[in-house]
Fold:
Amino acid sequence: MPNSIRTTRMAFIVAAGLDIAAAATLLFIFFAGAAFIGWGSERAGLLGNALLGAAGIILAAIFAAFAVLALVVAAGIAKGRPWARLGGIVLAAIYLPAVPVGTIIGGVALSGLLGRDARDWFLGGAPVRRTPQVPPASV
Structure:
């Protein structure tokens, strides 16, 4: 496996770890907020409690889905699957606007997936070299 592909794979694994950490942090923050709102006995607080808890679950699920997607792409990259290159490019482009860490991860992943090593890796692990056909010499 070329170093640029190995670096790209590690970038997706790091991104997955950060996504899981973000999902856990969001769950904690939103559930803590929902608990503080729910301590009151007013009916208006119950609606805020439900909305805050639901928003936390939805955001955490989105980050967890990105983590799973990044791990699947990293596994596909390690095996040289052609779909992993396209999926990695799309996922890296999605990470780019997440300044500053997502931009770094997306840039590293794109540089690894768009280079010559990636083209060779995803076409079968070795560069494709064609030799010209030379007709046999006549006797």
User: Anything to note?
Assistant: The CA atoms of residues 2 and 117 lie 7 Å apart. The chain has one domain: 3-122. The chain has a mean pLDDT of 85. DSSP finds five helices and no strands in the chain.
